[in-house]
Amino acid sequence: MVLAQLGGSISRALQQMSNATIIDEKVLNECLNEITRALLQSDVQFKLVRDMQTNIKKIVNLDDLAAGHNKRKIIQQAIFNELCKMLDPGKPSFTPKKAKTSVVMFVGLQGSGKTTTCTKYAYYHQKKGWKPALVCADTFRAGAFDQLKQNATKAKIPFYGSYMESDPVKIAVEGVERFKKENCDLIIVDTSGRHKQEVALFEEMRQVSEATKPDLVIFVMDSSIGQAAFDQAQAFRQSVAVGAVIVTKMDGHAKGGGALSAVAATKSPVIFIGTGEHMDEFEVFDVKPFVSRLLG
Ligand code: GDP
């Protein structure tokens, strides 16, 4: 279910409930079940949905509702708060500071949009006056360096990589060192991905992270992976200290639920979303406006 539909389903469930003359437990349960179904169809993890349902029941006091309060508003507010809570892990991610060197490492499966997102992230900061640089530590996928080079050249961002070197750790370290010397304030390390979660990939991420000591590790996730999001995000988090999430491909047939799962699995906030293939199709992620839009 795409986000707009999810918002529509939730609004409909609330509308139906507020049409009822008496809001008793049965009516509330029906409304919550309807919302649960909508969230599950949007790929929100079952456990998260179940917890949310329990929390809302605890918050919403049926006696208050009976006393003529605006039922719809009370329940809608509870749902709004719960969805915000799901998307807000409670602590902000590390935020790089302009003119102070930060190393940011990107991780994610192949095809998640990692390389594209690295450039978008660099470009976003460059427009704000930063001095970003890109390091291609993906020696696994043939063509990875060319892709990064092409993107970087288009955006006029310095880059580092090698066609010959097969050790991603060596390239990552060399690139980071070089750009530190050049006083770049945002050194972005693009890493390799695989089609699936493999031991070798996670070991490689661990080594690159250990060698480059990133200030921030960003997990990049394709919004259309659905229910797989939780496990995938958790698997990355077990090998590197993921501190933030970027959800790509929120245009098109994006499902929103995966984002909630990734936040829950990594205990890290979503900081940006990708909304297209172009360099500037990239937005800062803000929990409250996102949830407001979701609820319509
Ligand atoms: P990587 O293998 O993870 O490095 O993924 P790439 O950066 O090569 O991206 C895979 C494909 O997804 C490419 O065709 C990108 O143009 C596309 N892509 C990346 N981000 C977005 C996005 O936000 N929206 C859309 N529609 N496509 C995207």
Automatic annotation (TrEMBL):
<keyword id="KW-0963">Cytoplasm</keyword>
<dbReference type="GO" id="GO:0006616">
    <property type="term" value="P:SRP-dependent cotranslational protein targeting to membrane, translocation"/>
</dbReference>
<keyword id="KW-0378">Hydrolase</keyword>
<keyword id="KW-0694">RNA-binding</keyword>
<comment type="function">
    <text>Component of the signal recognition particle (SRP) complex, a ribonucleoprotein complex that mediates the cotranslational targeting of secretory and membrane proteins to the endoplasmic reticulum (ER). As part of the SRP complex, associates with the SRP receptor (SR) component SRPRA to target secretory proteins to the endoplasmic reticulum membrane. Binds to the signal sequence of presecretory proteins when they emerge from the ribosomes. Displays basal GTPase activity, and stimulates reciprocal GTPase activation of the SR subunit SRPRA.</text>
</comment>
<dbReference type="GO" id="GO:0003924">
    <property type="term" value="F:GTPase activity"/>
</dbReference>
<dbReference type="GO" id="GO:0008312">
    <property type="term" value="F:7S RNA binding"/>
</dbReference>
<comment type="subunit">
    <text>Component of a signal recognition particle (SRP) complex that consists of a 7SL RNA molecule of 300 nucleotides and six protein subunits: SRP72, SRP68, SRP54, SRP19, SRP14 and SRP9.</text>
</comment>
<comment type="similarity">
    <text>Belongs to the GTP-binding SRP family. SRP54 subfamily.</text>
</comment>
<keyword id="KW-0342">GTP-binding</keyword>
<keyword id="KW-0687">Ribonucleoprotein</keyword>
<dbReference type="GO" id="GO:0005829">
    <property type="term" value="C:cytosol"/>
</dbReference>
<dbReference type="GO" id="GO:0005786">
    <property type="term" value="C:signal recognition particle, endoplasmic reticulum targeting"/>
</dbReference>
<keyword id="KW-0256">Endoplasmic reticulum</keyword>
<keyword id="KW-0733">Signal recognition particle</keyword>
<keyword id="KW-0547">Nucleotide-binding</keyword>
<protein>
    <recommendedName>
        <fullName>Signal recognition particle 54 kDa protein</fullName>
    </recommendedName>
</protein>
<dbReference type="GO" id="GO:0030942">
    <property type="term" value="F:endoplasmic reticulum signal peptide binding"/>
</dbReference>
<feature type="domain" description="SRP54-type proteins GTP-binding">
    <location>
        <begin position="269"/>
        <end position="282"/>
    </location>
</feature>
<dbReference type="GO" id="GO:0005783">
    <property type="term" value="C:endoplasmic reticulum"/>
</dbReference>
<dbReference type="GO" id="GO:0005525">
    <property type="term" value="F:GTP binding"/>
</dbReference>
